[in-house]
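Reminder: ligand-aware prediction takes two inputs, not one.
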Amino acid sequence: MKILLITPPLTQLNTPYPATSHLLGFLRSKDIQAEQMDLSIELIQRLFTGEKLDEIFQNAASHPKLSKQNKILLQNADFYLKTIEPVMRFLSGKDNSMAQRFSDRNFWPQSKRFPSDDDLEWAFGMIGNYDRATHLCTLFLKDLCDFIKQTIDPHFELIRYAESLCLRLPEFAPLQAELQKPYSLIDKLMLEIFANQIAKTKPEMVGFSIPFPGNLYSALRCAQWLRKEHPEIKISMGGGYVNTELRSLSDSTVFDYVDYIIYDDGELPLLRLLTGGELVRTLYRSSTGEIVRENFDSKENIPFSEIGTPDYDGLLQNNYINLIELTNPMHALWSNGRWNKMMLAHGCYWGKCTFCDGSLDYIHRYESAPIELIVNRMEEIMQQTGQSGFHFVDEAAPPALLRKLATEIIRRKLTVSYWTNVRFEKSFTPELCYLMVQSGCIAISGGLEVASPRILEMINKGITIETARESMKNFTEAGIMTHAYLMYGFPTETAQETLDSLEVVRGLFEEGYIQSAFWHRYAMTIHSPSGLQPESVGTKHIETPKGSFANNEIPFITTHEIDLEYYGKGLNLATYNYMQGAGYEIPVRQWFRK
Ligand code: SF4
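Here is what comes back for the chain with iron/sulfur cluster:
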């Protein structure tokens, strides 16, 4: 059976999301006919053309309540129409000659979003024209996205679609109601591209990979179209969103749209679906309308060493676009540059943090492969893509493995660059960090979470503030950029502990040991140790009826509840300033204002 794997809109636009290329590499290694498509970037490339923008402007002109900002944008329609395609060519690296012109602040129309010349000079200096132009082009696109969202399609954002609809979806009905509405302009465009691909590829099965809530609606829109136009084609879906949110699915209506839902690593479930044999971790609807859960708890998997090399065929012709929204260089890595994405190992070698989805396969099954095989995969991917930069998308790359990796890269005399996630543990000595830099490591990210000794222990992170600071120092002094994931609102965390945590973060920025950071609100998930045993972190579940569609976050009560919105705003404001090298002298308490 031939399969077409799809990344549905919308997700990152600078490089392919890794799921389909990993599956394609594996399926082809088993001689299965398989193709892939990144519908996300293809949609954006078709949307941001003069022709489509003209259609959008014409539609928006009759909008009954245009904001002042949108009226100004429409008055400048000619500028947007003549500039959009050169901008897209520039962002996709096809016309670098526009850097000088696009980096000039005066080239662009007035917009609240655009920074002053002084801010631009601080961030990019006198010669950083290419990045400066990329930043200004990104802001130009963001203005257009706001316009589209406010006038044409409320679901539209640059790297997610209908996310707010799908973020918390205990019942399927709201999504189904949305799917019954007439096609939007974005739907029509997406389905046109999708239909062409179906006609070209002629698959017998289409597999949607859904990493985030912001990919769900569009996958089901495509599935709905496929059911109507090509009822003979089977439809499956899986991916990160499915694995975390849909494990207790009991409403079978979703099977009006798809035939199979598969869980955890997709290699084995897809192999069985495509070649026959016993299904594994697969749900479908029986002829009597019940949901059948085939070997749902099976731990059977293809060993990590046998999953093959990711295959980029079908993606290389796409015009991925570089985006720089924030001028922080570490932050820009996520949206700028065409990184080859692969894993050094499967799962997390620690796997004990109480807030993390440790009961799920993608965390708790730690498996590595010989380092020679990993570096062979890197060399094969470089051959395919012509790119030497790698983002290792591991949950936490072990120090011992990074040491072997660095040694092997140096032994083979490869010139590469790479970045990955780590735990800030004491094994990252100056000597290991130096070795990593010599082999091409440019950046790392890791969880400091709540920078409070008491809470760090409760979280079971296995690090202390001192060891984290020491490893961050070693990374920075070796020349590796460092990003810290931070968390607020952990059960029993007091207001004072939240301020103390920010004080630790402030100090790390001031000392230059981290260059970027991001605060996440703690969410108690049903797959985490804290969700499975809430009393272990001093909380109680609030009993709520179980949803028949998505279930992940659990409401809870705890002592010392804090105003999460108030503290979240202050933490983000302070950290935004720290990332721009500002505000270190301001006492942390002053970032919090009613
Ligand atoms: S939070 Fe990170 S280090 Fe902790 S268990 Fe999860 S993946 Fe591993």
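The first strand starts at residue 3 and ends at 7. The two ends are 60 Å apart (CA to CA). We will return to this case in the review session.
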